[in-house]
Amino acid sequence: MGRPIADRMSAAALAIAGVAFAAASLVPVPAQAHVKWFAPYIVDAAPQPIEATLTNVWFWTGIALVLAFFLATRAVERSRLGEPVLAALDRASDPLHRRLDDFMRVCIGGFFIAVFAVGGVYLTPDLQTPSEWVSWAQLVIAACVFSRRTMPIAAAGIVGLWLVALRDYDFFHLLDYLALGLGVAGYLVLASSENERFRRHRFETLRWAVAIALMWSSLEKFAYPDWFYPLVEERPFLTFGLPRDVFIPMAGIAEFTLGFGLIWTPLVRRLSALALLVIFTAAVYPFGRIDLVGHALIMAVILVIAADHERQVHFVPALKRRLAGVPAGLATALVVMVVGYWGLHFAFYGQGYEPAPGAQIATHAPNAEHPHGSVAPIEPQAHDVDSTAGVAESVDPAAALFAQANERMHESMVLDPSGDVDEDFVRGMIPHHLGAVEMAEIVLEHGDDPEIRALAREILAHQREEIRMMEDWLARGGG
């Protein structure tokens, strides 16, 4: 008589999931979302004009491919197969769904314990701080998520850390982390509520938070494609053999549209979540533990979205149920996000700030473990005897790195006098401090003495803080 109905429905679910992953593979996505974690980039530099994206054929190719996937998924969802496919996904995820709130709280608590263990960061490895109390505050947040009475305290702590980070970081840069932070805080508040009318929206809050965070951060690939050039050149396997200028816009579209899919109808959002989960999981091996820590919370939320059995469609449900609603909704999301990103950037920075020679208004200090980008150390060449004073041929790699750092520092400190002693001092001290930061990172990478390593960490904390202060002073036009 053939296979049981349940088996056939499971096979149908697997087939739809296969279509989703196939569509995702047609629009390649980089294995990590925030390249700024690995190297500092100037946030307030002028973004590429949006016209450059709108006239890019690969942008529209990516749009067409994803629209085809979404429309095919919606067609299945509206057919007689729709509910059986969703039911098969329910059965596959039912063990997790029964403990979804416990899973989410454990992941939030585990994330804040991890960033406490990393130390010296606010809410992500990108946002570094020398303030020791921040790490202990994160441990308190982790402890508060396991009781419904204290979950609002944890929520307030998350929002509070974001606000404190404004002291050290640019507001526009922190917008990358606003939606997810507010979403997790909102979840904790709603999950602790005794009012079921409010509580039932807790997972919807997480869906919107991750969707907005992904759509917003994906725009960097259109506004600043050059930020991604060093990463692509360093790890060419990320492009799946595609040319760099084909891969980056299509990767941006994939990240944006899969984020958009998280706020659409049940089958679209669950398959989008599964595709994103594969993408983020694939980043763990090539990018290491820091990437795992940074993305752990967003990966947990994506898994929750994939396992959530909710069928009800909120927010313009009539539009979402129509096939024509897919292109209309995607176009609206693109317009809102693009106008918001380019408009806010112009409101904050005008046409874009050009830093003084040797200065960088960067997202964060250089990372010695991932030194690519505009401040990447130049690998010593065997013939480059003059630039490294003969050290390039040394068997000690740290000695060559020290020589290069010293040379770069002194070259950057050679400045034409402006006539303003304060400005000249600041412009000279910034490369001096950057040299100290780079040498401290070399010690942490290659040194063994505990006392010297402790001194290097102290230098990193204080010098980075002073670099930010001096760069802010220059950005304001002086005293």
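Above is the first protein from milestone M3; the second protein from the same milestone is given next.
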Amino acid sequence: MSSSPIKYELIHKDKHSGARRGRIHTPRGIIETPVFMPVGTNATVKTLTNKMIRELGSEIILGNAFHLFLRPGLEIMKEFGGIHNFMNWDRPLLTDSGGFQVFSLKDRKITEDGVKFRSPLDGSKIMMTPEKSMEIQQIIGSDIAMAFDECVDANSEYEYFKESVERTYRWAKRSYDAHNKKEQALFGIFQGGLFDDLREKSLEQITSIPFDGYAIGGLAVGEKYQDSEKILKKFGNKMPENKPRYIMGIGSPTMMILSVENGMDMFDCVLPTRMGRHGTALTWKGKLNIKAAKNKFSKDPIEKDCKCYTCRNHTRGYLNHLFKRNENTGKTLLSIHNLHFNITFVKKMREAIENDAFLDFKKEFFENSDYPLEN
């Protein structure tokens, strides 16, 4: 790798917190940060068309390298010239390395070379190495790729985390050396669980490699909110200031606020669309169960001041009916609303940071909603 295909611009830092307002310049467009990235695991954000996602104002989405490797497979990705042509998406796209998915499989074996596992599709043996992960992501053609790291169970012993941090560093160097797609950025991931000394060491190791951006891994994997808070407060603003900072798997209002308050720029999560498909709407007052009987006769939208397509065109009563009849349209309409909520939420955080009012935004939000200060 030589010069970076992306550039991070720091626009403003909130005077009273670690929150920062920035901009990521990419060949496919500008990403305003902080940014929430909708998850398009299989080259689609479930139940939504690309037109819908664009109209929601999403500047970047996430694809899953592991699942795209399994299906449709690299042969088809090559034939189409990459994921942007394949799914007709003209804006930035980030792929994860496949590490989290590989390590979540039960039948796997970790070696120095990589991870050996059986395909969940046909049971065939697959060896995922840092080099293989880079090959997959380069063929997919995402704008931002992630280095291959080891995702460790949060309940593992200290000694295993210690070994894993060293392995993640070696794999990060191999990922960097194997990556040669000059128009694709590559981010490194530091690990270390909930151990301060290991986090410190991993951050030092990973940032010694000139990646285009850096991510904090191993959070939002079932640990307590207080543990996430401790790690973010201690290490969020120790990450390089001149490059994007990414925390993986974050999408609830509570965790987005915690992440931004401690210097994070990017986050992704399936939460808004998954909740939408199951009948739960995110609002500024809290979560709303659209399937509840009280909504059956309601002529109100999900949220009166919401400007999303769903709230401008449909009532709670109609949405309640769609879910009672298991109509896919209901899943689409609630997913539209929830993504609009998250995208608007980060936009308002950006405005608050620019005005040095992030902590005021945080205070007002929790005072006027029933979202927990702790997840």
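Note on the second protein: Residues 35 and 266 are 5 Å apart (CA to CA).
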